[in-house]
Amino acid sequence: MDKKLKSKSLCKWKKEDVKQNGEELIDILSHSKFFCEKCLRSSRLKGTLCKPEKLDRMVE
Ligand SMILES: [Zn+2]
Which pLDDT belongs to residue 56? Predict the structure, then answer.
């Protein structure tokens, strides 16, 4: 993955980023363990969300 994108919050990805990094996006989104409380996006990498919250907290 693009190093710049990896350090970039997933919440801030633009349409172009999604287009160019579709596979990476799917990789990040699959098996999501966290979600962003602010933007309601999900990710398996905590660092890619601006306000990450653990998903399993919602299950209980
Ligand atoms: Zn966010």
Answer: 80
